[in-house]
Amino acid sequence: MRPCTPALVLSGGGARGAYQVGVLRQIARQHPELRFPIITGVSAGAINATFIASHAGELTDATDELAELWSELSTSRVMRSDIPSLLANALRIAGNVVSGGSRIAPPVRGLVDTAPLRRILTSVVDSRSIQAKIDAGRLEALAVSATSYRTGDSVTFVQGRPELEMWDRFRRHARAERITVDHVMASAAIPLFFPGCEVDGEYFGDGSLRQTYPLSPAIHLGADRVLAISSRFANVSETGEAEDAYPTAARVLGLMLNSIFLDHLDADAERLERVNQLLQRVDPKHSWLVPEREVDLLVVRPSLDIARMAAGYERQMPRTLRYLIRGLGTRRGSGADLLSYLLFEPRFLSELIELGERDAKLNRVRISRFVEGCAPATV
After folding, report:
1. In angstroms, what CA-CA distances link 36 with 139, 261, 374, 378?
2. In the prediction, which pLDDT does 257 show?
3. What is the sign of the dihedral through the CA atoms of 335, 71, 127 and 221?
4. Distance between CA atoms of 218 and 304, rounded to whole angstroms?
5. What is the pLDDT, as a whole number, of residue 102?
6. Dist. CA 248–CA 253, nearest whole Å
7. Are 23 and 361 in contact (CB under 8 A)?
8. 70/17 Cα distance (integer angstroms)
9. Rounded CA gap, 155 and 35, in Å?
10. What are phi and psi for residue 181, nearest 5 degrees?
11. Dist CA 47 CA 207 (whole Å)
12. How confident is the model at residue 225, as a pLDDT?
């Protein structure tokens, strides 16, 4: 059993973020002594990561409260879905199109207003509590990633120990800052649907948009053992309309969101495994010549297709929002992927949490090996 620094990596996925909570709650119950010195998140994962980092208690208490928060969410607590709000945004979009983008029409920053989500995050995101845990040695770093709408770069905001070195790579940068609600709102701003958020005079959107290496922040911060939670069903076959049917807008948007939220983690995990295999072939006498280091990785994935689960809950969406979503083509049965990101309804979210708990139980042997192989750094 060797000393190591474990990290928790939470990916994006809108409403799919509830699945992460179920996995984490069950892991915390299996291993109440577990602690992650490094926590990174993007999009919905940034919400979960910041909640856990802000919580003054142990992981068991944090995940119990986080599960309660998610199970009580509804569309109206995440975004304004009333007729006046949605109609106003639709008219702004139409006005911009008709006016050719002139200043006559007010600018459109997103299809929906996410002020309700900001109110929730204001009550749970606490940079002072995060800093207190860092000062007490209970946390080394929290990292939240967002996409700069000015440069197109992926920017990772890091609140951690002062001696941590920030990084600067092609299209990927890190900034040492205290994590606030603005950082989390920016990271979770789903492209097109949620408005971007201003941070330090610059507008940012969903961090998954340009984060091609989602495991990278944790490794840069010193992790050599990473637990990542994906919301992609490993055996999914992306099928929708009949082969001779032109794909609906809902189908195209769903594929786009899958690419943004799901593909990057899987691709990065493959790259990391290849690097590990190459490092294992290096003669120990020459290992000092190689700048990379071996990183143990455990990825937990859903045992069921979350998109197919979402299809059964479409009627629970607010009527106006459901009408607009159907206008994109969900009636043809091809919009399940899109629905799974926007379906913030209690029954669906609770089922995702339960699925996460079951999958953590199914993977308890792999999870135990992950935790017990690194005991000195996790207590």
Report:
1. 7, 23, 11, 7
2. 86
3. negative
4. 27
5. 61
6. 9
7. no
8. 9
9. 26
10. -60, -35
11. 12
12. 94
Are 40 and 47 in contact, with CB atoms under 8 Å apart? Answer: no
Q: How many C-beta atoms lie closer than 10 Å to residue 261's C-beta? A: 30
Mean pLDDT of each 10-residue bin along the chain, 379 residues long? 83 94 97 95 97 96 97 90 64 60 63 91 95 96 97 97 95 96 96 90 93 95 95 67 67 85 92 91 79 90 93 82 71 74 94 98 94 58
In DSSP terms, 355 is beta-bridged to none
Q: Both tokens of residue 104?
A: 């006559």
Pick from 115, 245, 262, 313: nearest CA to 325: 313
**Strand 296-300, strand 202-206: pairing:** unpaired
Compute CA 9 distance to the chain's CA centroid, rounded to the nearest angstrom: 9
Rounded CA separation 28/193 (Å): 33
**Cα angle vertex 134, ends 129, 137, to 5°?**
125
pLDDT confidence of residue 88: 66
Burial (CB count within 10 angstroms: exposed 0-12, middle 13-18, buried 19+), residue 173: middle
Question: How many angstroms separate the CA atoms of 302 and 379, rounded?
Answer: 28
pLDDT at 379: 31
Measured CA to CA, the distance from residue 76 to residue 364 in angstroms comes to 36
Instruction: Supply the pLDDT for residue 83.
Output: 61
Distance CA 335, CA 196 (A): 24
Q: How many angstroms separate the Cα of 122 from the Cα of each of 117, 202, 336? A: 9, 20, 31
Round to whole Å and give the CA distance between 190 and 352: 20
